[in-house]
Design a protein that fits this description.
- The structure holds two protein chains of two kinds.
- By secondary structure, chain A is mainly beta.
- The relative contact order of chain A is 0.34.
- The mean pLDDT of chain A is 95.
- By secondary structure, chain B is mainly beta.
- Chain B has no helices and eleven strands.
- The radius of gyration of chain B is 13 Å and the shape is globular.
- The mean pLDDT of chain B is 95.
- Chains A and B meet through strand 4, strand 5 and strand 10 of A and strand 4, strand 5 and strand 9 of B.
Chain lengths: 112, 113
Amino acid sequence: NAGVTQTPKFQVLKTGQSMTLQCAQDMNHEYMSWYRQDPGMGLRLIHYSVGAGITDQGEVPNGYNVSRSTTEDFPLRLLSAAPSQTSVYFCASSYLGIYEQFFGPGTRLTVL
Amino acid sequence: KQEVTQIPAALSVPEGENLVLNCSFTDSAIYNLQWFRQDPGKGLTSLLLIQSSQREQTSGRLNASLDKSSGRSTLYIAASQPGDSATYLCAVNGETSGSRLTFGEGTQLTVNP
């Protein structure tokens, strides 16, 4: 199993540009989520999904969109990038939300 | 709102020492608590998961305990090695938080040869 994979590993954007961060898992997990990690703020939940076709907002959802068309994939879209979205983004998955959660390697995003 | 605190923020020990990392949380209504390791520039690696009904879990040189009523967990590392150097994060999965993990800010551990 590859586990949780994320692409790209690094990305630099200009303010106002849009992009999609990809996340995939091959463990047939129903629950997937996106976090951002910032110095002094820890990891904070952006959006999560309890299964295909079902998504919900986390703690810091503004500026981000998600969709879940398949069990395997959970992309995160930045609609109009802002410098405040400079961060490291992690995708996570688990069989169900209350089970052990597994994290991907992260995407380092810089918005200029 | 669940809050998770980890003390100390940083710890430096000589190789071979046994050490304890602390994690406290404010709301005892939890499903489980998970300890992670994060190496610089890398993702989070799950170390141990303790369900709310459990008192402790062990994996190799690692032992994690949970006292749900007092809102505390400890991660014990036996016979520390330089390869244990990393940031250790604890995360609480709360019953009222929709399966979201609430993280502490971590303890940065350095094990000196």
